[in-house]
Structure formats: structure tokens, C-alpha cells
Amino acid sequence: MEFPIAGVTVNPIMLAGIGFIVGLLGGFFGVGGGFLAAPFMFWSGVPMNFVVGTDVAHMTGKSIVAAKRHRALGHVDIKLGFLMVVGTIVGVEIGAQIIERLESAGNVDIVIGIAYIVILLTISAFTAWESIRALKMVRTDKINVKDAVGFKGLSTRVHGIKLRPMVSFPYSGIESISLWTVLGVGFITGVLSGALGVGGGFIRMPLLVYLIGVPTHVAVGTDLFEIVFSAGYGTLTHALKGNVDILMALVMQTGAALGAQIGATSTRFFAGPRIRLFFSALPVFGAIMVIIRLLTGVGAVH
Amino acid sequence: MKNILGTPKRWAFVRNMLIEVVVYAVLLIIYFLAVLRLLGGFLLDLFNNQLIVYAFIGLGLIVTQGIVLESLTSYLIRLLRLDRFD
Predict the structure, then answer these.
(1) Has this prediction a pTM greater than 0.80?
(2) What phi-psi label fits residue A120: left (phi over 0), alpha (psi between -120 and 50 degrees) or beta?
């Protein structure tokens, strides 16, 4: 099928297939999946300038499908999601500006890339360790597997920070937490997104669980809800720069919609620690993609 | 995993999921041929001449398709009783 805006001919079934895989992962883990889709699109022959913008556009639609499904399952904390969006959008803008300024001073991609790889691998190792610990606790302490978290010290300390204004998230079972903590989590993931051109899902989801103390299923759904807005904002800004092939995004979204539905529905069959254990493999793939980007330039947005 | 894959419902779940994929794939091919080909010329014209309008229409299309596809896939899931395998 010809895509006249990007000026390429790509098999639409293949694009829908890429969307399906990314949608499946996104619906299950609450991540955008841009780190996976972008290289596949590039290797399919899509010009680099259209890869990132089109990927963000399809992510918007996919997240709508997955977030609606999670909402139906009771996994979305709307209030928390909206507050995170504020922090994320400010962070994305600042991250992009920081990069622009640093780039004029020299090659910063390698420094940021290595820092990002370290962060991803740390998250992966920590999540794997914690989820295995939680599963052991379920066996030895006979606690409810759905609520088991192997490391609660961090969120307990974060809840103890009394920096006003304080907010509550009854839906997530959080009685009181500083608003600045919530905005800060959104901001940090936004800065990383803006700096590296990737969605912050695989950083935000664990931060929601371990730092803010949100149950895993709600963290997945809320993260997707947040991505709807941050990716929608990204779609507009990329489209205004002429970097989005909407036709291609619509085709990818058809596959992603089905994948996201199946992924989101599947979360009901797995307890929180098990979802986190599976999730721990994702940042490793993310790190590999960053390494490929640093070595080949595939997926770079600057 | 044991909850779903370790029960006799496993094969019914997988079978119904495959039926959904096949039904959905047929609908997609019709959609590719009927709708997206028609949209191509219109969107290309907007992209070349009115980028701001293109950006907003593009976002509108993505959001609209997301909502429509969510309704369609939810309907298929209900139709095939995939939401009752818990």
C-alpha cells in the first residue's frame, strides 16, 4: 500500500502486525512501546523523520483503546493521571530544550544514552528482585498475592514527606501524599522522554508502584491514561513539524487496538507481582534499543 | 498464569481469541481498501498546503478511530464471551 505523505510503499498488514505486538505489550504493561515500534518501522523502509512522529501518533490511539479497557476493569485513577500529565508535559518541553542547548555545546547523545541505559537496567534488576521477593512472601507469609509488594519502604518514606499541598488518591488507596511528589514523577519521566524521544512508560509504571504506592493494575491503567494526553500532545507538535504520516498511524492503530484490548484484558489473569516480574524484562529491551540507536542512529529524533 | 492456562477453559479462550483475530482481520482489509485509500489524496493535499489543519485533523482522526476501534473490539470480546473467562 502506498503512503503518499511519507512517500513510501509499505505492506499495511506488516504495519498492523507491528501495531498488534506493540499494542499487546502496551495493554498488558502500561507502556507506549515506542522503543520497539520505531526500529521496526525504520527497518520497514519508513523515512527516519516520519518514524518518531508517526509512532507517537499511533501510540495516542492505542492508548485510548487500552486505557478505556483498563477503565472498564477499574484500573484507572483519573485524578492521579491528570496530575501526572501536567508534570510530564512540562518535563517533555524542558527535556527537549535542555537537549537543544547541550547539543550546541557538544555531542551529548552518548552521555545521556549511557545514563538512560544504566537507569533502565537498574529498574529491570530492581523490579525483578522485588517481584520475586513478593512472590516468595506470598508463599511463606500467606498474604494476598494481588496486594503483595516486596519492597514498601520507599513509598512509606515518600508518603511521610509533608511538603504542602497534600493530596489524596482514594482510588489507589493513598490517603495523603505531597502533590510535588506526583508532579515530580511525571516531570522526571517527561524530561527523559523529551531528552531521548521515547515514552517514559517503563520508568513511570515502576515509579507509580514503588514511589507513590499505587497497586500494579491501577499503575498500568493510569500510565496508559496519562500516555493518551502526553502522546496526543506529542502528535500535534510532531505533525506541525511535518513528521507524521497519519495514514500510516491509522493503519498501525488498527492492529494496536486489538493487541491493546487483548493485553489489557489479560491483566485480569495475573497478580501484581507476576505482572511486575514479566515487566522487568522490558527495560532490558529498551536498553538494547538505546544501544542500537547510539551505534546506528536508528530511532534518533534530534 | 495457572488461573487461565491451567484450566479446561484454556482452549475455549484461545479458540475464541483466534476467532476474534480472524473476524477483525477481515474487517481491517475492507477498511484498508474502502476508507484509507480514499483518505490518502485528501490528507496529502492538507499536508502540503495546510499543515496546521492537517495536524489537528490528524489528531482528530486518530482519536476518533481509537474510540471506534475500542467499541468494535469490545463488542467482539463480548460477542465471543472473552470477558467471562475469569
Answers:
(1) yes
(2) alpha
